[in-house]
Amino acid sequence: MEAGKDTTDLWEIQQYGNPTVSTGYRMIKEKKSFQFAENWVYSAKDDNFKGFVVWANGGYGTWIAKFTSENKWSGNWVKNLNPEAITGKFEVTFETPANITIVTFNAEGVKEYEAKMIKVK
Fold this sequence. Notes:
The chain is mainly β. The protein has a single domain (2-118), classed as Beta Barrel (Lipocalin). The protein contains no helices and ten strands. It has strands at residues 2-4, 7-15, 20-28, 31-43, 48-55, 60-69, 72-78, 86-96, 99-106, 111-118. Strand 4 (31-43) and strand 5 form a beta hairpin. The chain is globular. The model has no long low-confidence stretch (mean pLDDT 91).
């Protein structure tokens, strides 16, 4: 995702069986700096995905999500994987296999951020 002049956000995502691991970096003029590490897994018991992310600043978050349509993944940021303790919401729309849109909302559902991302090889 282009984040500004000479700046790109890069996500490396790899699946290890059921769990998936992603690492985010910011590239500024070809200098790579760590932004986040995230793990998530599908829970057939609950029919949803559960994730844990840690950011470079030392913060962390947990989330629970599921597919709400064939091409949309909707979820909630929650405190310590507690589905009742919602701190924010998000939607990921898969427009094509290589293009996605991510939208985040506050806990009340007010849109805060939108980003369009493309897959590169």
